[in-house]
């Protein structure tokens, strides 16, 4: 039987008859007239990926093969609900791209207001209504449309998924979780092809991971003895290290963090940390972006504690600290959290200390869906500050080294790959005393006892094209025309990292999960100093960095691979560290000059 016809014949009779007889708005959606979305069949995509024996990817593949060998296809009338998020394409995306590129030539950079963005670039109400009608006819319920109309949430059984998207679902146990994976590429009727970007929630097996690196206990808040110029720092040292102590505190600016799971311990840790360091806890808002119960997760608590404490310490204070809180780290849950931060629009910086091999996010459609959200954020003057990864050039391997000599085999982390975020890499910083800046090298701690490399992520995206602010200012460094990362880098080394209070004690933490919130805290100071009139950070900072290298801390030594492989740091922008870090007071002086 034709695979395009078979799913229609498995629909409930009440859905089939109107479709066949032309009695609903869906009469144009013929059974053989379906179009692809950005969401591909999950398990075949992952299992086809090349992997070295013994690598993280090879182990993941073996684990998935073993688990999926016991998979059971969900029957269309299975009682469990499948929660999906349908992401839609912005209208006139080419016009939005052009508008963003033009901001490079205008100072100060004006931002589009949220209502203006929706009027110009959100999917039309008619487009949304057509998708909603399709979901209802397929058997979905509890349908909700995001205020900016980019996301549509819905719940339904496996039969509804098959009716709406032409794919079945496999069900099995994996890594202690009950997971599903879609067996075929997700499709929609041809009439919706220009509207629907992707369908998230059809795979729950592989999720994003946090990007902090716990090195060793650091005592009860006391500084370890420094044997030289590289040692563990208090988070309150970083404004001095990056020359931001003379700027106003970020008390007029709102910053957000993308989080997941229960945040009770995170908020308690923040209060304890602030009391220890005589800091004022800003007004906090926890915005839950999913329904249902939020479980506790100890590893995640360490991550969000690092993010929140670093941002408060480096900014010196905030107007508001928002937590856009997903239920878990699945593609669908995180996409809703990203979009909620953009819909709200209050935060000038949104910190994301999470990542995943971009091959996975490209295949499940979340990469394309994120891009649409981040692009709207950039247009309304928000900056997503995103960790570039802690696995060096081995993101797909989870940092587990292999004998890679061909840069074409190196991999990078999503969502840092997006052209519409600021990707933040990692360095190791040396100081005189606690806060006197001496220099930085590429963060690369080598491999641990398990053969896992700890080093800054950076390299070339295989799927994302370079944005205008890179094509203009990086010149011949863009050898492929693809998005390259990171953009800037700050301290991430366990040797020079930070002491973070987590559940009763201070621990020494590094990773690009430290670097990203350092940037977010510095950006909050810069925004307050400029009355929150700064636009998207990349379009603000790339022109300044290119023309004024003296305000940069250029990182010229080190690499982000193993045994001499990976990318090498060098003068100017480079793959391991981007432009390096910066002298924040120097950046502020240039911003003031540009605004005159």
UniProtKB/TrEMBL annotation:
One of its GO terms (molecular function) is serine-type endopeptidase activity. The active site is at residues 303, 307, 513. Binds 1 Ca(2+) ion per subunit. Its cofactor is Ca(2+). Residues 1-30 form the signal peptide. Pfam families: Peptidase_S8 (PF00082), Pro-kuma_activ (PF09286). Residues 229-594 form the Peptidase S53 domain. InterPro entries: Peptidase_S8/S53_dom, Peptidase_S8/S53_dom_sf, Peptidase_S8_Ser-AS, S53_propep, Sedolisin_dom, Tripeptidyl-peptidase_I. Keywords: Calcium, Hydrolase, Metal-binding, Protease, Serine protease, Signal, Zymogen. Ca(2+) binds at residues 554-555, 572, 574. One of its GO terms (biological process) is proteolysis. The keyword Signal applies. This is Putative protease. It comes from Frateuria aurantia (strain ATCC 33424 / DSM 6220 / KCTC 2777 / LMG 1558 / NBRC 3245 / NCIMB 13370) (Acetobacter aurantius).
């Amino acid at each position: 039987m034709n695979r395009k016809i078979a799913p229609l014949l498995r629909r409930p009779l009440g859905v089939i008859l109107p479709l066949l007889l032309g009695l609903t708005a869906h009469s144009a959606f013929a059974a053989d007239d379906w179009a692809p979305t950005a969401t591909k069949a999950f398990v075949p995509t992952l299992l086809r990926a090349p992997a070295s024996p013994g690598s993280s990817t090879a182990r993941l593949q073996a684990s998935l093969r073993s688990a999926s060998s016991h998979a059971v296809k969900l029957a269309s009338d299975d009682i469990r609900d499948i929660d999906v998020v349908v992401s839609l394409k912005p209208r006139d995306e080419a016009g939005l791209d052009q508008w963003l590129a033009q901001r490079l030539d205008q100072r100060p950079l004006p931002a589009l207001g949220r209502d203006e963005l929706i009027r110009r670039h959100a999917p039309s109400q008619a487009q949304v209504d057509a998708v909603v009608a399709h979901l209802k006819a397929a058997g979905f319920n509890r349908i909700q449309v995001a205020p900016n109309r980019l996301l549509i949430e819905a719940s339904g059984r496996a039969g509804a998924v098959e009716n709406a998207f032409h794919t079945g679902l496999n069900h099995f146990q994996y890594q202690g979780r009950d997971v599903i994976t879609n067996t075929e590429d997700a499709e929609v009727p041809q009439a919706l092809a220009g509207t629907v970007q992707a369908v998230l929630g059809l795979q729950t097996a592989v999720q994003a991971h946090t990007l902090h690196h716990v090195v060793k206990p650091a005592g009860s808040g006391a500084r370890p003895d420094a044997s030289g110029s590289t040692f563990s720092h208090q988070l309150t040292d970083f404004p001095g290290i990056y020359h931001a102590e003379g700027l106003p505190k970020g008390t007029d600016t709102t910053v957000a963090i993308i989080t997941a799971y229960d945040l009770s311990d995170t908020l308690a840790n923040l209060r304890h940390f602030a009391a220890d360091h005589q800091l004022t806890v800003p007004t906090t808002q926890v915005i839950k972006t999913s329904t249902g119960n939020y479980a506790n997760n100890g590893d995640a608590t360490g991550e969000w504690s690092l993010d929140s404490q670093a941002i408060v310490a480096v900014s010196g204070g905030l107007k508001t600290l928002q937590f856009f809180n997903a239920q878990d780290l699945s593609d669908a849950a995180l996409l809703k959290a990203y979009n909620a931060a953009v819909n709200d629009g209050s935060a000038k910086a949104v910190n994301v200390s999470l990542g995943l091999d971009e091959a996975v996010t490209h295949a499940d459609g979340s990469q394309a869906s994120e891009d649409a959200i981040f692009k709207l954020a950039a247009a309304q003057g928000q900056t997503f500050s995103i960790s570039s990864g802690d696995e060096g050039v081995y993101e797909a391997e989870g940092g587990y080294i292999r004998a890679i000599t061909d840069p074409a085999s190196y991999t990078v982390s999503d969502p840092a790959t997006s052209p519409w975020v600021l990707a933040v890499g990692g360095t190791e910083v040396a100081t005189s005393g606690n806060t006197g800046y001496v220099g930085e090298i590429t963060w690369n701690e080598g491999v641990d006892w398990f053969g896992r490399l700890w080093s800054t992520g950076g390299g070339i995206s295989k799927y994302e094209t370079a944005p205008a602010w890179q094509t203009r200012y990086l010149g011949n460094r863009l050898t492929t025309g693809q998005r390259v990362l990171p953009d800037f880098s700050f301290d991430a080394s366990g040797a020079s990292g930070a002491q973070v209070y987590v559940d009763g004690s201070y621990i020494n933490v590094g990773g690009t999960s430290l670097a990203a919130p350092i940037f977010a805290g510095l950006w909050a100071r810069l925004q307050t100093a400029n009355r929150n009139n700064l636009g998207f950070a990349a379009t603000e900072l790339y022109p300044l960095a290119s023309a004024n290298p003296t305000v940069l801390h250029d990182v010229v030594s080190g690499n982000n691979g193993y045994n001499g492989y990976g990318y090498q740091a060098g003068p100017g922008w480079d793959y391991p560290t981007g432009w390096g870090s910066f002298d924040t007071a120097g950046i502020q002086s240039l911003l003031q000059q540009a605004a005159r």
